[in-house]
Amino acid sequence: MNRRRVITGILLVAGGILACWVMGAPWFSHQPAHDRRKCAEWSLDLLSPSHSTRAAATRALQSMGPDAVPLLVRQLHRRESWLRSPVLAFSSRLPVNWRRAFIGFWQPFRARDERLAAATALALFGAEAPVDPLLEALRDPDRQLASRVATALGGCGAAAVPGLTAALQDPDPEIRRLACYALSQIRRPAAPAAAHLAHLLSDSDFQLMASAAHALTTIGPAAIPHFIQALDHPEPRVREKAAFSLSQFRSSATNAVPALERLVDDEDAAVRWHADLALRAIVPRRFVEFGARHPSPEF
């Protein structure tokens, strides 16, 4: 009797896994291929620890061109089958070696890997990747997936800026940080988001503030007025970050000199230090005066 129950259980698990695999496996759908391997299989190779495997997958996917994009978008939104929980729960009753061998062979439940692979692959297509599905995936609770989606959005260029600007106002600070990262990859075409990025310079989350400052810096000289305005912020850490960011622009930030000169006598030592550093970068003749006037503060 027990033997019959075990055999019946094995058949049920096998049938469930096979049905799940047949219904959900992306390689059963029509899709572009390269060297007799389909797009979904190549995309999973992007997750390999082997550099040569990832490089081969990159070449294969790029050779497929825009035809691969619709499939990758569907793959990005793939969800685990409802059979996952009951099948895995029942298979836990099987002998360990049988369970490992069977599930290892069929690999029926890997929707998360397929989604990570799709996000990674879409980043290869730059502006050809569709913005709206990526913006939706940016809010996924899986932070590793959302990070890869942010990279793909950064490659979309100006088309992604309106959606990313809206994401800067999301209540989740992690989504705001990822939007800052994506905008920093877009660089100068992200200028329409400058005012919203400047607003984040006063955020209480230091990492988010730093991400916003970096994204603003990548926009170029158009961001300078926002940093100059931040020099008058009541929070010392905001003034410090603005002064440091202005130093990155060097001679392009000469308009900031009067405001920076006021900060060399700021009550906060770190602000004074970064203001003088910025002046030295913007107006090199101040280099001689720098060391004598303001020794390094103790932080």
Search tags:
elongated, 299 residues, mainly alpha
Summarize the structure.
This protein is mainly α and 299 residues long.
Strand order of the largest sheet: 1-2
Proportion of residues in β-strands: under 5%
Beta strands, count: 2
Radius of gyration: 26 Å
The stretches of 5 or more residues where confidence is low (pLDDT under 50) are 20-28
User: What is the overall pLDDT average?
Assistant: 85
Structural class comes to: mainly alpha
Instruction: Please summarize the sheet with the most strands.
Output: 2 strands, antiparallel
Output the helix-strand order.
HEEHHHHHHHHHHHHHHHHH
Quaternary organisation:
single chain
Provide the helix percentage: 55-70%
Describe this structure in words.
- The chain is mainly α.
- The chain has a domain at 1-125.
- The chain contains 18 helices and 2 strands.
- It has helices spanning 2-24, 39-45, 51-64, 68-76, 84-91, 96-106, 111-122, 131-138, 143-154, 161-167, 173-186, 194-199, 206-219, 224-230, 236-247, 257-263, 269-282, 287-293, and strands spanning 33-34, 37-38.
- Strand 1 (33-34) and strand 2 (37-38) form a beta hairpin.
- The longest helix is centred in the N-terminal third of the chain and has 23 residues, at 2-24.
Blueprint of the fold:
Blueprint: H1 2-24, E1 33-34, E2 37-38, H2 39-45, H3 51-64, H4 68-76, H5 84-91, H6 96-106, H7 111-122, H8 131-138, H9 143-154, H10 161-167, H11 173-186, H12 194-199, H13 206-219, H14 224-230, H15 236-247, H16 257-263, H17 269-282, H18 287-293
Antiparallel strand pairs: 1-2
